[in-house]
Design a protein that fits this description.
CATH architecture: 3-Layer(aba) Sandwich
Number of strands: 10
Strand order of the largest sheet: 2-3-5-4-7-8-9-10
Helix content: 25-40%
Strand content: 15-25%
Shape: globular
CATH superfamily: Alpha/Beta hydrolase fold, catalytic domain
Number of domains: 1
Radius of gyration: 18 Å
């Protein structure tokens, strides 16, 4: 296993918090990374093509409950991890244990330990900042990429005002109701039960460290510590010939329009049926989950892996 950071105390959300989740009957699986437990769900035939669903901030794999049935009905295997600090995965208690670099290392190690390959990546929000770096670390493990409402910033482009407001709120607000925050990023809202499901991983303030610090890790200045790593990843994507699809939504004030740079610079994006998901907010998995999943299925069918 690759070298991983030494961590301080770890928090683990009690399993009882995840009982009676609406529309999410999936059994969790766990991977031990030198004492750090990372959770994921794994559904569908073991030998089927894998769709890797990477969530962002401050959600967890529950975000994909509307997409998973569509993908399974198409005969695909679906794997959706919980990032460290979220969902059923362990949550380092010390703020200094979290960083953009550490999360890339943890999730890349998780991918390697589980020997995942032949994957189609679907990523959104922080799922893209981490997921696209995972591709850059091991491009041979991925056959296709679908990017939605996310990106790979290097800190040299202007930051939307909405993101600055969100980052300040996450860092300084004494009130941080995660379920309500997710609801505010959905065009059609959430039920009380769904809001509770997003709150489930975070029974107390000390469990919310990752959700608080993640906005501050987005590269927004040229001197960001992860600028060079993201620029190296971009150099790989500028040579990426495998299929690359963008499925951004039109009602996300932070990432709206971010698809253009990928369509322009990634060779594999040329000629693909890129689409703008109408009527969806930041969390398009909630607003238009079935529609997005159907687009992924069509993309996979239209772009079979070489030799497949």
């Amino acid at each position: 296993m690759r070298s991983l950071p030494t961590l301080g105390p770890l928090l683990r959300t009690p399993e009882a918090r995840f009982e009676h989740l609406p529309d999410f009957p999936y059994t969790p699986h766990y991977t031990d990374l030198n004492g750090l437990r990372v959770a994921h769900i794994d559904e569908g035939p073991r030998d089927a093509p894998i769709v890797l669903l990477m969530h962002g901030e401050p959600t967890w794999s529950y975000l994909y409950r509307k997409m998973i049935p569509v993908l399974l009905a198409a005969g695909l295997r679906v794997i959706a991890p919980d990032l460290v600090g979220f969902g059923r995965s362990d949550k380092p208690a010390r703020r200094r244990d979290y960083s953009y670099f550490n999360h890339v290392q943890w999730m890349t190690a998780w991918m390697e330990v589980n020997e995942l390959s032949g994957m189609t990546l679907f990523c959104q929000d922080w799922g893209s900042l981490i997921g696209l770096r995972m591709v850059a670390e091991a491009p041979e493990r991925f056959d296709r990429i679908v990017l939605a409402n996310g990106g790979l910033p290097t800190g040299v482009d202007p930051v939307p005002k909405g993101f600055k407001i969100w980052r300040a709120f996450a860092l300084f607000s004494p009130w941080f109701p995660i379920g309500r925050i997710v609801r505010s990023g959905c065009a059609f809202g959430l039920s009380k039960q769904e809001v509770a499901a997003y709150d489930a991983p975070f029974p107390a303030r000390r469990f919310r460290v990752a959700a608080r610090v993640f906005p501050g890790f987005v590269p927004t200045k040229p001197d960001d510590p992860e600028r060079q790593n993201n620029e190296r990843a971009w150099e790989m994507f500028k040579r990426w010939e495998k299929p690359f699809l963008t499925l951004f939504s039109n009602r996300d004030p932070i990432t709206r329009g971010g698809h253009k740079i990928f369509q322009r610079l990634v060779p594999g994006a040329q000629g693909q049926p890129h689409a703008v998901t109408r009527g969806a907010g930041h969390f398009l998995q909630e607003d238009k989950g079935a529609e997005v999943a159907q687009a992924i299925v069509a993309f996979i069918l239209a772009n079979p892996a070489k030799g497949g």
